[in-house]
Design goal:
single chain, mainly alpha, 11 helices
């Protein structure tokens, strides 16, 4: 009787490491709901997703649009800018994931999750699911502002939805980078500082805001291989028309490569973080 009593608890940890797909999906759903409730309790955390698209589209259209596209051609520039900003939204929202994970560890929330019999990846995937939702809200506001100031779709609604989906896929892959960064750096401020050092060259050294043909030769070469340029060009051609195959496949390849490399590293870091 006593032997059975002693051996029973030792079997539980062995089963914890073998969590089925259905249970994993259920855990992700419960954790995603927890993250959404956090947003409900702290509505200010949505300010970046709600206001950032408005600020950026108005700023670049009316402050820089005349210089880039020529005075009086601001509305034409909107058709170039908005697809590019779809790529930029993903990077800025992804940065918030890293700071959020770092902050959760400081509060002890992640330590409690790691004591539960759930897949470690489900905690991080739930974060990404909610942040993709925030990214979708930001992109919707961006497009609404774009249509309000002159954006037109020269292809079809399906092409527009494909551009949005592509931006979501690439943005989700970037979140793994920032989650890994949030798990590695000691403070949320450090995460933001390092993230900005990465974000600024990638964003402004791309085709998001201006055609690469007007850039110096060395910068044009960097822009050509910048994954944000591939995403911006793919979204631009899906909305305005043009050859999309190369840009779309390059964007998907970048997203797959980033996820395959950084997701296992992030999960391992989460499991072993002290």
């Amino acid at each position: 009787m006593s032997a059975a009593t002693v051996s029973a608890p030792t079997a539980a940890p062995a089963r914890e490491g073998r969590i089925g797909l259905r249970a994993n999906v259920r855990h992700i759903g419960a954790l995603a709901r927890r993250n959404m409730l956090q947003i409900k309790q702290d509505p200010e955390s949505m300010f970046d997703a709600l206001l950032m698209p408005v600020v950026f589209i108005l700023l670049f259209t009316y402050v820089f649009g005349g210089s880039i596209a020529g005075k009086g051609h601001e509305k034409e520039y909107v058709g170039y800018l908005v697809p590019g900003l779809m790529a930029m939204m993903g990077m800025n929202i992804a940065m918030a994931v890293g700071t959020g994970v770092n902050d959760d560890f400081k509060k002890g929330v992640m330590d409690r999750f790691r004591t539960m019999p759930i897949a470690r990846s489900s905690v991080l995937i739930a974060k990404i699911v909610v942040e993709v939702g925030r990214m979708l809200i930001a992109t919707t506001i961006l497009l609404a502002m774009g249509f309000a100031i002159g954006l037109t779709v020269s292809t079809s609604v399906w092409h527009l939805l494909a551009a949005v989906a592509l931006a979501m896929i690439f943005g989700a892959s970037l979140m793994w980078i920032f989650i890994l960064l949030g798990l590695t750096m000691k403070t949320a401020q450090a995460v933001q500082g390092v993230a900005m050092l990465v974000l600024l060259p990638l964003q402004f050294g791309s085709s998001i805001f201006a055609p690469p043909g007007n850039m110096p030769g060395w910068l044009e070469g960097f822009t050509k291989y910048n994954p944000l340029s591939n995403l911006a060009d793919a979204a631009r051609h899906l909305i305005n028309g043009g050859p999309v195959a190369h840009s779309v496949w390059m964007t998907l390849a970048w997203a797959a490569g980033i996820t395959l490399v950084t997701a296992p590293l992030a999960v391992a870091k989460f499991r072993n973080k002290t």
